[in-house]
Design a protein that fits this description.
The protein has 14 helices and 23 strands. With about 450 residues, the chain is of the alpha/beta class.
Length: about 450
């Protein structure tokens, strides 16, 4: 598979890092020489210095031969024009990141065949979509969808009193009584690991589960969470993400308020939002927050452009009585640190969410999508089982795979199930595999290549 990527800033870098692990042929374009030099040193890939709208540069980069062209520069116009040029040159699939141009779409992902673009991704809508899912499921600290949105990978923070605290991982399968659910990953002290059956869980652990969508409520109750989605939501920051989130939430929740320090921005938001209340105030002013009844708020979500403001305001809101707080974090490496803070219920990084969303649509051969846990070497692969591969021989418990490689879910026609050791795989099954990146070669050979 040959991929050309235009723009190697934060989002582009994460995509390059992920695709490099996949072993595809990569070419990168950017106008900043230092970014390209860093990529060359770290990944040894081919790079070209210049604009993604330079036809001669695109020809040198052999864009016409690309299986996939990704335009993720910081300029919307550049991304659109570059994709249109790539389409004319013969690139098979074109994906563009569009932040500010209004194309009349409210979805995080949309196609635009009239522009010659197969997929457009809006990072603000990606973040708003992610946050909306978390608001609807207040017990969840991370929420991801796979297999046509029918299987979830969700994270919970284990609290004191949870039936799994001080118990072995194997206890969950033995006593929970929840079918189609699998414990996939445990994060403790910033370290992620695929747990074995004897691993003992502790209060404060962040635990990821694979589960069928309709089992999420049952899983939440078992873990001791009985919270219903709250109706009072404060959004600190009325920028692009805050606005996109408010537009979504005001359609479903009773009391949505946007706290924005700029009077001019407040005036604009008041005109474009239908039901949300826009307040011209500083979201870190404890006195003003108290006057607005912050103690009765269900969710405080800080989305300003300053991560220090987001973290401080979220912690302040927690101290003032808010039930759940979420903070935007600009640097992905800060996520584990922030998530360990008990005063912040969850954190998110827009750039990482965008890169993650992009990778769900970067398909090649039998690899349908890819998901990497933040700041971790653990990953999830969505694969389609081909004819003749080794995975068609024997049951899952007999698979000669390295320790820590798990088959997390299977889609077989209309049926979705979490497999057990005595299950077999069939040709054409779509499966989710969770593993350490060091095991990727063995996993690909076993699940994606014909046996000798």
């Amino acid at each position: 598979m040959r991929v050309v990527i235009a723009g190697v800033g934060e989002v582009g870098y994460h995509v390059v890092e992920t695709l490099f692990r996949e072993g595809v042929e990569l070419t990168a374009l950017d106008t900043q020489e230092n970014l390209l030099e860093n990529l060359e040193r770290e990944f040894h890939l081919t790079t070209f210095l210049g604009s993604a709208t330079d036809a001669l540069l695109l020809e040198k980069a052999r864009v016409g031969e690309a299986d996939l062209f990704l335009a993720v520069t910081n300029h919307d116009e550049t991304n659109v024009i570059a994709c249109m040029m790539a389409a004319e040159m013969g690139a098979k699939r074109k994906i563009a990141r569009i932040k500010s141009i209004d194309l009349g779409m409210e979805t995080a992902m949309a196609d635009s065949p009239n522009l010659g673009i197969d997929l457009i991704i809006n990072p603000f809508e990606v973040a708003a979509e992610h946050l909306t899912s978390m608001v609807k499921h207040p017990q969840v600290t991370d929420y991801n969808r796979f297999l046509s949105d029918r299987v979830l990978l969700v994270r919970f923070r284990l609290e004191a009193g949870c039936p799994l605290v001080n118990e072995k991982v194997s206890t969950f399968g033995q006593v929970s009584g929840i079918p189609q659910t699998l414990m996939a990953l445990v994060q403790r002290g910033g370290v992620s690991q695929i747990p074995h059956g004897e691993y003992v869980l502790q209060a404060g652990d962040q635990v990821y589960f694979f589960c069928e969508r309709h089992q999420l409520k049952r899983l939440s109750h078992y873990l001791g969470f009985h919270t219903k989605p709250g109706q009072r939501i404060f959004i600190n920051g009325g920028g692009n993400i805050g606005y996109a989130l408010a537009r979504r939430l005001e359609k479903e929740f009773e009391d949505v308020r946007v706290l924005e320090i700029s009077a001019a921005r407040c005036q604009y938001l008041s005109q474009v939002l239908d039901r949300a209340l826009v307040l011209n105030m500083d979201g870190t002013d404890a006195d003003l927050l108290a006057l607005e009844g912050i103690g009765d708020v269900d969710y405080f979500i800080s989305t300003t452009q300053r991560e220090d403001v987001n973290m401080v305001s979220a912690m302040m809101a927690h101290r003032l009585g808010v039930k759940k707080t979420i903070a935007l974090v600009a640097q992905p490496e800060f996520l584990p640190i922030v998530q360990e803070n008990p005063m912040i219920s969850a954190a998110f990084c827009p750039r990482l969410l965008t890169a993650r969303k992009l990778m769900l649509y970067v398909q090649g051969l039998n690899l349908l999508s890819f998901f990497a846990f933040p700041n971790s070497d653990i990953e999830v692969l969505e694969l389609q089982v081909p004819a003749g591969c080794q995975a068609l021989k024997g049951t899952i418990s007999t698979f000669p795979l390295p320790t820590g490689v798990l088959v997390g879910a299977v889609a077989r026609g209309e049926r979705i199930f979490i497999p057990r050791g005595n299950d077999e795989l069939l040709e054409g099954d779509r499966i989710l595999v969770i593993q350490h990146r060091n095991n990727r070669a063995a996993t690909k050979e076993f699940f994606m290549e014909e046996s000798a």
